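@channel sequence for tomorrow's demo:
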Amino acid sequence: MSSLFKRDLKDHWYISYNNNGYPHVQQGFVLPPNRFEDFDPFLLMAEDWFKRGAFSDHPHRGFQTITYVIDGRLEHIDNHGGHSILEAGDIQYMNAGSGARHAEEAVDNDIAHTLQLWLNLPQSLKNTKTTYQNVYVEDVPRVQIDGGELKVYAGEIAGSKGPLDSLVPITMTEISLMKGASYKHILPANHNAFVCVLSGELELGEGKTLLKKTGVATLTFDEHGENESEFDIKANSRAKILVYSGVPLREQIVAYGPFVMNSKEEVQEAYRDFHAGKFGPPAE
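structure tokens (generated this afternoon):
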């Protein structure tokens, strides 16, 4: 008999979208802002469709981003000379740390379609050096399972280790299943986790809750557990789902605009530093 902690859905909802016009065509929050305690260590997650000009040069401090390209091409430019183009299935990881200044743009006439997750940094790492990492889909381990496939982007899942190297321990897995397939996803029991359905219809968790495309759910977890946990997934149609998990930081969070710090004074300092040019020249 399994002794693993059995996960269920803690909360679930469907994404609401705003049609903004050009260049930021459409936007919705997968993880809405201001639920930091529920999502810890994650802050928010946005789904965006955008043309060039939507996310030109802008600053960040105090957190990390994980940007997953669903469709189109995404061009990255930063003010340290970095430049790259990512396509469907690719990811860019950024540690904003002490101060990033970059641009994320669609290429040519593309409409880029992305999921961007904000991942908090503990106070001890908020002043680390800004870094970027591109994770290309061809470099992501694929694990064949009965009736489907896993892509392991981050963490150790099903015997494979993902290439994404975040400063805090997380997992990120894309799970594709054929109609009727079932899978038990194994995660550390003390990881807070959420799922985002990219396509199809699934039965999730101990309660076998139905969730369809654009559905999102947070999962139960054992915050002080030292073992693994089990999350049941069954596909009622051909389906694809993203599962993210991480260890909660349980620190004070003060977020305003592009900065996420531990106090109001630190946010004010970030604005002063940016306007004083301490983040460096524009990304162009």
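heads up for whoever presents: The radius of gyration is 19 Å.
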